[in-house]
């Protein structure tokens, strides 16, 4: 973890916010107002795959081909965007009931919508951070034998 650059730390933020969004998606889909409805597994699968790809970037980026690194960043971002979109599509009926038909809706429906909004914000932060990573430099500091600054600092004279 010490060798991570700012980009590496941003990927860690993206992973943790995507995980938080996924947990909130699962919680709102299985409890409260939406307890009896079917849960769409695609946002969960997409988020898990995106987190696995991002964790591969953090752990093994120095051993990966630069083209593969770009592909992993792009794929992670697309999967998180797809999870976000599916989450939004699953909650539009809640928003319509609470905001556009503001009479006689159960309190649990508003609670489910508010928790869903927090989950959507988590996914949105994850999307933004993955886009930032896509335009940033290395994920890990390079301590290879070609790095003379590191050699001079840590090698005895």
From TrEMBL:
<feature type="transmembrane region" description="Helical">
    <location>
        <begin position="111"/>
        <end position="135"/>
    </location>
</feature>
<keyword id="KW-1133">Transmembrane helix</keyword>
<feature type="transmembrane region" description="Helical">
    <location>
        <begin position="42"/>
        <end position="60"/>
    </location>
</feature>
<feature type="transmembrane region" description="Helical">
    <location>
        <begin position="67"/>
        <end position="91"/>
    </location>
</feature>
<keyword id="KW-0472">Membrane</keyword>
<feature type="transmembrane region" description="Helical">
    <location>
        <begin position="7"/>
        <end position="27"/>
    </location>
</feature>
<keyword id="KW-0812">Transmembrane</keyword>
<protein>
    <submittedName>
        <fullName>Uncharacterized protein</fullName>
    </submittedName>
</protein>
